[in-house]
Amino acid sequence: MAGGGVAALGVKKERAAEYKGRMTLAVGMACLVAAVGGAIFGYDIGISGTSRTPAHLTSCDRRRHQHDLRASGSAQWEQNTRKALSMSCSGDLTAPNVAGGVTSMDPFLKKFFPVVFRKKNDDGQNNYCKYDNQGLSAFTSSLYLAGLVSSLVASPVTRNYGRRASIVCGGLSFLAGATLNAAAVNLVMLILGRILLGVGIGFGNQAVPLYLSEMAPAHLRGALNMMFQLATTLGIFTANMINYGTQHIKPWGWRLSLGLAAAPALLMTVGGLLLPETPNSLIERGRVEEGRRVLERIRGTADVDAEFTDMAEASELANSIEHPFRNILEPRNRPQLVMAVCMPAFQILTGINSILFYAPVLFQSMGFGGSASLYSSVLTGAVLFSSTIISISTVDRLGRRKLLISGGIQMIICQVIVAVILGVKFGTDKELTKSYSIAVVVVICLFVLAFGWSWGPLGWTVPSEIFPLETRSAGQSITVAVNLFFTFVIAQAFLSLLCAFKFGIFLFFAGWITVMTVFVHVFLPETKGVPIEEMVLLWRKHWFWKKVMPDLPLEDGWAADDDDGNSHHK
């Protein structure tokens, strides 16, 4: 029945009203430990500088690089930025830079990328060419590519051996990668360590959101799932602060930055060994009685018949599917597949990197000098963390759609305002005054706030909760692969886009946010409070997706949904 014959299999009716249970200490502790996977993801992209510096340029070099590129394009833009570049770069060649990561540390470059190090200190070298190095590119891209491939490999592991198995694999791989990087004596060791980090991220990002969604009770699933994003923001912030401190420890500060990644990796590995497996996975793998015992323990009640029945019915269909990746392409899984591709892609296309890219420049124009990157990191990190807390506290009351749409509208407005200020004021005053810089920083904070309560966490949450059991692991693998792919593409293309669009890059991303906001309004049904194993029934109620999905033959005694999306007994 792998091809798609589903008669009398799968969840057949809604039982959400019959679900019992409460938030228990077991669930809270399990979700807290599992969410460390998010901290690992955040720490790694922060420690290497990829969270903000796609081309691995120091803050001053980045702005000079932009100046060099723009000089070859618009003479007006060159005139408008000359004074700002002079102000922000003069005397600041060695200023502390939290955003640059270890790739901005001279001892690191001198040891592994001596050619880049020499070019960096050659005043006569074109700034664009300073970082044109295949080894440095391999160091950057290896994480994303390894994560992309390993997320797909993780799917059968997660399905056949459980969510905990993938979490432990991710932790061990990340532990090995961090150790190799910290002890690296040549480029081969460094890139191999980076690949292992990517493998760890692929396994962790594939399994952790699934684990959180399956362990959480339906009425709290959104909040508990967002622990992953909250941990990611903390990881990035922690990495930035560690980089700021270790860059002063010469010549081995970079080893400390890279090696400290082993701490959350160890916690994730040990936690994965001690965590209970999700009842969904246990039942799917035939350990039915154990699955029920775990379900009773994490719900705090023995009255779990309705939820257990949904899991048992879902596992019937899951066990009949031999090839999840082939099955996920069938029409009846089309809505979930579209979401698995669009949600992570849209999350990256919000332009969050473009906003964070400009923050240090604006802080320097406000008089913070060499500490601009530090203040920028602290402020944006604090805003992102607090907005994720807002999302956690409201997502299961207001719903996913309201947060995504309201956040999208606010981000559009902020992007347009920043574009107008940069375009108009640079066109008249040649530079931003302190008052306009403050205004732009406030708008940037409002943008980060909106991102943090909407697309930041929900870009992970929604895909992890919408797939039926038989394709859940495959679907999450696609989500992670798409996210890493678009992160890689934007990281590689960002400076070229910046050169081509100039301040119009903010309008470019505002256009994408408009598209994704309309997409959510039209195509995403509200998943708030819907049990994860009954999510398959939700799509048959949606005005559009019920037209796309084929009629589902059910067991005798049940009719397909009517026009209102309700199932009826014959």
Automatic annotation (TrEMBL):
User: A Pfam family in this protein?
Assistant: Sugar_tr
Membrane topology for this entry?
Answer: Multi-pass membrane protein
Tell me where the transmembrane regions lie.
23-43, 136-154, 166-185, 224-242, 254-275, 337-360, 372-392, 404-424, 436-456, 477-497, 503-524
Q: Record's Gene3D superfamilies?
A: MFS general substrate transporter like domains
GO CC terms in record: membrane
Where do the coiled-coil regions begin and end? Answer: none
The keyword Hydrolase is assigned to this record:
no
Keywords tagged on the record: Membrane, Sugar transport, Symport, Transmembrane, Transmembrane helix, Transport
Q: Which residues form the Major facilitator superfamily (MFS) profile domain?
A: 30-528
State its location(s). Answer: Membrane
Primary localization class, coarse: membrane
Q: Which GO terms describe its molecular function?
A: monosaccharide transmembrane transporter activity; symporter activity
Q: PANTHER family, alphabetically?
A: OS09G0416200 PROTEIN (PTHR23500:SF595), SOLUTE CARRIER FAMILY 2, FACILITATED GLUCOSE TRANSPORTER (PTHR23500)
> Which family does the record claim for this protein?
Belongs to the major facilitator superfamily. Sugar transporter (TC 2.A.1.1) family.
Q: What is this protein called?
A: Major facilitator superfamily (MFS) profile domain-containing protein
Q: What taxonomic ancestry is recorded?
A: Eukaryota, Viridiplantae, Streptophyta, Embryophyta, Tracheophyta
